[in-house]
Structures are given as structure tokens and as C-alpha cells.
Amino acid sequence: MTQEGPRRGRNETEEERADRMWVELIQEVRVAQTGVQILFGFLLTVVFQPKYVTLPDTDHVIYIVTVVLGACATGALIGPVSLHRLVAGRRVKPQAVRLASWMTFVGLVLLLATMTSSLVLILRVATHGSATAWLAAAVVAWYLVCWYGLPLWARRRHSTRPGD
């Protein structure tokens, strides 16, 4: 504590902050990358299963949309690694962190869409369409609470603004 009151925040330069934020971001991306890569790998095998040809056209469309979303999510979540490699040593880390953070957010949104469409496809096949919409909506609501609702609530409730 100082005479002005308890110390808040960190005493770090912009570069030190960018370094710290980069390490944190890469740890987060590793978790998401693993999930999206496993899901995407599984999706790539579905088309080679004998049952695939017997699915209705609607399920084929859902599958194709799901694969494309998975490919886009994979690209967005691997993007920060490529970005870092291409700009390393160029003294642009604060800007790279902002761009990588944006790519990660987009990747998570695409992952949510991929998981949603995967779930819809699986539930359509498993339940023959009954209750698919309700089950998928419940799971998506849970994802939204866990991935966005609680983090935004915590940010709003526990964040301090400069000067507070």
C-alpha cells in the first residue's frame, strides 16, 4: 500500500503488457484449437461412412455447412500462430495481440456455430427429428451462458475503469 491507497493494476510497459497478453492468448487458443481440430477431424470422416449416402438432402446440407464452419473456425484459431510467426521481431506485438485476439474471438464464434450445426445433425439422425430443436437450443443456450454470458457478467461486475 502507498499513501494514496492500495495499488491497483500492474506497473508494466506497453511491450511488457503485450508480452503477457500474448502468452495468455496463446494458452487460450491452445485449448480452443484442440477442440476444434478434434471436431473437424471427426467431421471429415463422416462423409466416408456408409450411412451418409442414406441421409436426406437436408442432412447433407447441414453436414456441408458444418464442415465449412469447422474449416473456418480452424483457420481463425490457428491464425494467431501464423500471425506471430510472420511478425515476430518486427516490433508490432501490441498490434499483433489485438489482431490475434480478434481472430480468436471470431474463431470461438465459428466454433460455436460448428458445434451447434454438428449437434443439430447428430440429433436429427439420433432422434429422427423429434426434439432436435429444443435439445439444440438448450445446449446452445448453455454455451452462450458459459462462453459469453458469465465472462461478460464478470467483466462488468469486477472490472475497474482507469481512474477508479
Give helix and strand order, one letter per element, not per position: HHHH
Number of strands: 0
Mean pLDDT: 90
Strand content: under 5%
Tally the helices: what do you get?
4
Q: Helix proportion of residues, in percent?
A: over 70%
Helices and strands in order:
Elements: H1 14-46, H2 57-87, H3 93-127, H4 132-158
Helix pairs in contact: 1-2, 1-3, 2-3, 3-4
Write structural notes for this entry.
The chain is mostly helical and 164 residues long. The chain is built from 4 helices and no strands. The protein is elongated, with a radius of gyration of 21 Å.
Output the keywords.
77% helix; mainly alpha; 0% strand; 4 helices; 164 residues
Summarize the entry for a quick read:
This protein has 164 residues and is mainly α.
